[in-house]
Amino acid sequence: MLTLHVQDMTCNHCVKAITQALQAVDAGAKLAFDLPAHQVRIESATASADELRGAMLSAGYPSTLAAGVPVVGAGKCGSGTGRCCCG
User: Can you give the residue ranges of every domain in the chain?
Assistant: First the structure.
């Protein structure tokens, strides 16, 4: 289970965009979103943490590992700008 903090995730449009990006990497991934906390929990059997985070970054949603949640294989946050329709 990977828990990511996605500061730019603020609405259902964001959830839809992130869902599409993650499912492109792993169609069977289980996703749980917490909009108020700006977090997404991902359970993937086939994709690595770096692949999942890369897909989100490519969709315009940079992420960081949620505080206090250790994950083996999670890389450092890449640089990038978040883009969202919510302004």
Answer: 2-65
The CATH code of the domain at 2-65 is 3.30.70.100
As a whole number of angstroms, the distance between CA 77 and CA 83 comes to 16
Per-residue pLDDT of the chain (87 residues; tens, 9 = 90+): 899 999 999 999 999 999 999 999 999 999 999 999 999 999 998 999 999 999 999 999 999 998 755 444 333 333 333 444 444
CA dist., res. 35 & res. 45, Å (int): 24
Residue whose entry in the numeric block shows the structure tokens 């730019």: 8
In this prediction the pTM is 0.76
